[in-house]
């Protein structure tokens, strides 16, 4: 019997119908329960996890498709769900949202420099008129605007 199931990244060959597991999440610092969609940039997949049953800090991860090696780019911080939707990638920087965290614990928009694994909170949601809270979707980067 194997341990707990924390989710996988897989590929499905449409011609053959064969599924291949690319990565099994181990929980803990590896993260668990992938959220949002995956994005593909420069031979790698990028995505997010919520966390595990005891550690809801989640991760932002990179899966190198040539080596099948997963790297946690960031784990913990900015909210109980590291990211709550699909990431955006532009020029070596990842952008995303967290469901909790920030100044008011109502969620954030963040950037993460891939080269340095250095996250920055760009916005803390405040749930005031004209502002939101608990973002459940990711971001789209277009022409310098999220």
Descriptive account of the structure:
- With about 150 residues, the chain is mostly beta strands.
- Helices cover about 0% and strands about 40% of the residues.
- It has no helices and ten strands.
- The protein has a four-stranded antiparallel β-sheet with strand order 3-4-5-6, with no helix packed on it. The chain has a four-stranded antiparallel β-sheet with strand order 7-8-9-10, with no helix packed on it.
- Strand 7 and strand 8 form a beta hairpin.
- It is globular, with a radius of gyration of 15 Å.
- The mean pLDDT is about 85.
Q: Helical residue percent?
A: under 10%
| Continuous helix count | 0
Q: Radius of gyration over alpha carbons?
A: 15 Å
CATH class: Mainly Beta
Helix/strand order: EEEEEEEEEE
CATH topology: Neuraminidase
Total strand segments = 10
CATH architecture: 6 Propeller
Widest beta sheet: strand line-up: 3-4-5-6
Low-confidence stretches: none
Instruction: Provide the structure class.
Output: mainly beta
Number of separate domains: 1
Largest sheet: 4 strands, antiparallel
Taken from the alpha-carbon principal axes, the silhouette is globular
Q: Could you give the distance between the termini?
A: 45 Å
CATH superfamily: Kelch-type beta propeller
Beta-strand residue fraction: 35-45%
Give average pLDDT, whole number: 86
């Amino acid at each position: 019997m194997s341990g707990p199931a924390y989710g996988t990244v897989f590929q499905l060959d449409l011609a053959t119908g064969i599924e291949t597991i690319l990565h099994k999440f181990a929980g803990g610092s590896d993260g668990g329960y992938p959220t949002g969609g995956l994005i593909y940039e420069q031979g790698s997949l990028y995505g997010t996890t919520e966390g595990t049953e005891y550690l809801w800090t989640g991760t932002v991860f990179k899966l190198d498709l040539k080596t099948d090696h997963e790297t946690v780019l960031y784990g913990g911080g900015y909210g109980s769900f590291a990211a709550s939707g699909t990431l955006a990638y532009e020029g070596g920087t990842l952008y995303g949202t967290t469901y909790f965290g920030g100044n008011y614990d109502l969620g954030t928009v963040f950037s993460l420099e891939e080269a340095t694994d250095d996250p920055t909170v760009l916005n803390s949601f405040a749930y005031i008129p004209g502002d939101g809270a608990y973002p459940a979707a990711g971001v789209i980067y277009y022409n310098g605007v999220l």
